[in-house]
Amino acid sequence: MYFLKCWYNGREYIERKNIVDQPTWLRNILDVAKVAGLIQQVKSPPPNFILWFTTDDTRNLIEFIGLERTS
Questions:
Q1: Domain residues for 34?
Q2: Residue 70 lies in a domain
Q3: How far is CA 34 from CA 8, 10, 40, 67, in A?
Q4: What is the mean pLDDT of the chain?
Q5: If pLDDT is split at 50, 70 and 90, which confidence band does 68 have?
Q6: CA separation (Å) from 13 to 25, 26, 33, 55?
């Protein structure tokens, strides 16, 4: 399962779905974060990790927020 919270135009949207239903745009962002060492593991899961990022209106990655390299 994955849990995604989005904020857009002052509104919060929540998505909780099976990992196999994860959209390609999100999978791509997670791949970049993994390669860059930006995934923050949680000491007592769930969740397994937390990742903050911003996208444009078409869900292209703009930046990762408040994270330091872990590797």
A1: 2-64
A2: no
A3: 25, 29, 10, 12
A4: 89
A5: low
A6: 16, 15, 22, 14
> Under a CB-based contact definition with an 8 Å cutoff, are residues 60 and 71 in contact?
no
- What domain count does the chain have? 1
User: Could you tell me the two tokens for 40?
Assistant: 């923050």
Residue whose entry in the numeric block shows the structure tokens 């903050």: 52
Query: Does the structure show a pLDDT above 70 at 12?
Result: yes
Question: Which DSSP letter does residue 47 get?
Answer: S
| Total Cβ atoms within 10 A of residue 33 | 19
Where do we find the tokens 């949680």? 42
Whether 69 is in a domain gets the answer no
Sequence-distant (≥ 6) Cβ neighbours of residue 2 within 8 angstroms: 15, 16, 17, 18, 19, 22, 26
Lookup: tokens for 26: 């999100």
Domain for residue 26, yes or no?
yes
